[in-house]
Structures are given as C-alpha cells and as structure tokens.
Design goal:
The protein contains four helices and five strands, in the order αααβββββα. About 35% of the residues lie in helices and about 20% in strands.
Length: about 120
Amino acid sequence: MRNTKQKDLILNIVQNSYEHLDAYEIYEEAKKSINNISLGTVYRVLKTLEDTNKIKKLKVNEMYRYDGFTKKHHHFICNKCNKIIDIDDTFDLKFNLKNLEVDDYEIIFTGLCEECRKDKK
C-alpha cells in the first residue's frame, strides 16, 4: 500500500496513543482531521499497517486493540477497567521447550491496575 494521507494519519494516531485504541476509537480520532474517512478505510489501513509490522494488534476481552510500539514487549491488562499497560521485555525467561521451534511469543499479565487496587480497599 502506498503512503496516503489516511495511512499516515492512522499510523500517527496509533503510535501517539498510550491507550491501545480499538478501530472505532481510531476512526473517531481520524474523523477530526479527515471528516469523510470511512470506518472501512480505517480497518483496511490497520490491516496493512499490521501486515507490514508498523503496528501490533492485541485481542483484549474479544475486542482488538492496536499498539504503535512494535519493539518486543508484553502487556498487563486490568481485569476491572481493561486498561492495557506496556511491560518492557527486559526480564529473562527460561523454558524447557524440548524439540520446539519458537518463532515468537507474547506474555499477557492480568490482574488489577494500581487505580483499581486503590478502589478495592
């Protein structure tokens, strides 16, 4: 896919969001700059950006969200508010993978975020 105004805008929205937006949230943000952009265009561009490894797609509670940070990292997902927090990939993981060839992996931690833990008390 060639560089287009829509593609550049959507990539910029995803890369500059810390919220791991879903497609509709990206669409709503994109409409602020390109009022006639369609939701279908957003989905097509997101698929292209994912296929070219410019963004990552995450499945959270049966919904897809998009991450502009493509360096190897993991995620923490709050069970209460669904907030997604990036976790750096600096810790050492050692597994006994007998005869397995691993191409990729991602770890998703779940629990309560700091804010929801405070609300629980």
